[in-house]
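User: Some background: our group keeps a shared notebook of sequences we're curious about, and every so often someone picks one and asks for a predicted structure to add to the entry. Today it's my turn. The entry only has the sequence so far, pasted here. Could you supply the structure so I can complete it?
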Amino acid sequence: MSGGTDSSVAAMRLLEAGYEGIGGTFRFYELNGSTEYLEDARSLAEHLGIRHITYDAREVFNKQIIEYFVQEYMAGRTPVPCTLCNNYLKWPLLAELADEMGIFYIATGHYVRKVKLEGTYYITSASILKCRIYNDVCHRCRVCGNVENRDAVSAHSHSKATMPAALFPD
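Assistant: Of course. Here's the predicted structure to add to the notebook entry:
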C-alpha cells in the first residue's frame, strides 16, 4: 500500500465488497532516505479505518534484487528486477506476513489479471508477464485493478473526494 491512487482504490473496493482490511507497506528502497510514502499510506489506512503495518525489506531487497541487477548489467545481460522481485520477494513475503497474522486473502492494486496456463497461475498485465505465482499463493490473491484502465481507477478515487489520494495528482 503506497497511499497513492491505485492502492487507495484497491483498499476502498475491498472494503466496499465486504472484506476487512489491513494495509501493508514494504520498505524496499528509499531514494535519498525519503519516507513520505509511509505517511501517505498510514494516512490512507487511517482514513479508511483499517490497521496499517510497515515491513522493512530493504536489506533483503538489496541482496536479492539490487545486487542481481548490478551483476546482470555488468555482465552485459538485460536484468528483469521486477519479475524477480514479484516471484521471489514481494508475493511470497506478502503471503508469509498474511499467514503470520491469520489472514487468508491478499490483494494488489496493480493493473493485472490472474491467468492459469497449464496448471500454473500467473499475474499478467496487458503487455508483460509480471510473475509466476505459486498456486497456493495465487488462489488467495484479489486483484482490484484488473477490469479498468488507469483513468477509470483515478475517477473512482476522485469520486471519493475525501480520500487522501484524490488530493494528489496521478
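Suggested note for the entry: Residues 81-100 form the longest helix (20 residues). DSSP finds six helices and seven strands in the chain.
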